TrEMBL record, chains A, B:
It comes from Cellulomonas alba. This is Helix-turn-helix domain-containing protein. Keywords: DNA-binding, Transcription, Transcription regulation. Residues 47-107 form the HTH tetR-type domain. Coiled coil: none annotated. The keyword Transcription applies. Residues 1-44 are annotated as: Disordered. Residues 70-89 bind DNA.
Amino acid sequence: MKILDEGSAASAAEPSGAQRGPATADAAEGARAEGPAAVGLRERKKRARREALIDATHRLVARDGLDAVTVDAICEEAGVSTRTFFNYFDSKDDAVLGHAPWPLTDEAAETFATGGPTGDLLADLRVLVTHVLETPPTGHDRMRRGFELAAHEPRLLAKHIAWMERSKGELTALLTRRLGDDPSHPLDVVTTLVLFVTHTAVMRWDANGGEGDAADQVDAVIADIRALVAP
Amino acid sequence: MKILDEGSAASAAEPSGAQRGPATADAAEGARAEGPAAVGLRERKKRARREALIDATHRLVARDGLDAVTVDAICEEAGVSTRTFFNYFDSKDDAVLGHAPWPLTDEAAETFATGGPTGDLLADLRVLVTHVLETPPTGHDRMRRGFELAAHEPRLLAKHIAWMERSKGELTALLTRRLGDDPSHPLDVVTTLVLFVTHTAVMRWDANGGEGDAADQVDAVIADIRALVAP
DNA sequence: GCCCGAATTGCAGTCGGTGCAAGTTTGCAC
DNA sequence: GTGCAAACTTGCACCGACTGCAATTCGGGC
């Protein structure tokens, strides 16, 4: 986590100088400080490239708008071949959002599945969502800039929701382990509600200027739902 | 509404015989019965083509899967030019889902905006959602087949959610008129929750084999949310 | 230094989607 | 029914996203 935060602080703060030409040098430098002692050069370069691509995409999209930016342009900006771009992301949109498999395979997940930490379903879901929101795969600020841009591009919002939808399977598995076949909380409602709470929390966090943590909004959102739906 | 139901019953039940060649004749016939006495030929043809395209898409996608079906194939099946396809739909995906602007500009919307019918927010939302679910723009069965296919194609589900997201603006406008700036029910939560309830209700309805009306599920979903989120 | 596997790259090709400039068809008035 | 304007359809040329393949380069362990 710290790795990403540092990395992003270094290379993402502002477009630096490199407006033109290959930014390979910058990117490589951006990844100089790695966390877990011995991370191979290979791995560092990979991360650096990935972040360079995301940053390049953000820069161009912020300036020209999503549809006006071609993948070729992004690649030129980042100094890689078009083909390589698609080795990193499945689509142009994914690059804006920095989409990557979210690491839910934590002890947090395990704890939740086995009935912890409190034993109360809602409270534990809250913990789970909070935990997920606090450990993004790409670093807070890059994530935030992705959302910033997504807020103005409906298609991106859709992609993001679709991406969340995909993790529904994972969540369902977790819930099944925990709930067994307890019919009092149908899976479809629980999973979908979790997703929507998460989504709304992130959106509010972004709307508030990204201050603090997205997780801070979770409680407020739940409270609002409760108020609306109360008998 | 009855128009569409009749039309779909006639031409959509099964692929009939026309597996090959222009289905223009079939399509034209499918639209023979128009509701509001005098609907111009132009309008009838338009609807017929639209439905023919949706049906052709459904047929091919059901057989070969979304990605294996090209727009050209759909057009050949339906007997129109490729260019025409895109006069009717913005994308291949939209054709599967039969997406069209949803007519929310009813008295129902007006009633809701002005505080009716009951005066209780939740109850009135329920009425609104129910009303919307009972008057689909393309006919129940076509809608159902769209969902059927969407359930197996993640991308389609995403598109559908995105499409709902788009109507959020409309809903927000409605809510603003009704609520003014009542801070006790933040707009983002209300709109998102409405979408969520609608979506889940439709999914359940589909999972139950499409018996009855999607609206029937709305109450159950709300009850489940309440149970989950209760203090 | 040397070799293996991983990552990058160029290329050729498919498909989705759009703008434009003809045709055709429909609605309408006379 | 004739004629005209508006609405639709269609073919065509074109762009850009994305993929599979085969050649090449590059990092890491020996």
